[in-house]
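AraC-like DNA-binding protein, pasting as requested.
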Amino acid sequence: MPETRQPFPPPPATPRKTSPRSGGGWLPHGYRLDAHSHAQGQLVYAAAGALATTTERGTWVAPANRVTWTPPGFDHSHRFYGRTDARLVVIPAELCDALVAHPSVFAVSPLLREALLALTDRREVRPGAYERLRAVVIDELTATPEQSLHLPEPRDDRLRAVTDLLHADPGRTTTLTELGRAAGASDRTLSRLFHTELGMSFHQWRTILRIHHALVHLTNGRSVTDTATECGWSNPSSFIEAFTEVVGQTPGRYRADLRDDAQ
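Structure tokens follow.
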């Protein structure tokens, strides 16, 4: 993609009544945008690379086949993985009711991808062209089911102690009972907290955490086998099965798409 697009805009120091309609640029691995909010909605798309969006509700990860959505008023931060071709499309507040009222991630269809690229690459030649193309984006998103790689974060101190240990080492194979000893809680209590606070089992939460890290490793050029080992899977086959179920494509296909996008 061209290197001459406007730089990806940093978060404003204070909320603004108006924002650029779109923007984008190549960002280095590890680039961060600290916590901020907007009076308008924002779509952020990594046409190459990957990004993580974090709010008080947890973290969403979007590889190149997904786009993140943040409605107005939500404090959020971004982190980018790999050399990322980041694209931003602003959705005016009056149009945001057409989309979900919470941060999310959506699958990117071929039509949606091309519309997002056009909105962030092209100059508006005919009056109203930008609004018409943005309407196509909104229509595509309203017809697309959410595919959130969402990792919720707990409030309970005991559960947070467990998730902090897993964040520090996603590949650890420690059982919930062993983690409970470190957190001062029984495995039964922790299992109940995972369901009541996070809406998923311990196994499901740890799998999503590992997939988040796997996406980062693959984006950084690691092999499928090395990624499986580092993220805690006993063999590549079980990793491929879990990754495909969550992401919607095999890790090998994901790596191949990254190479294609970088060319």
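Note for the archive: The chain has two domains: 22-150, 153-262.
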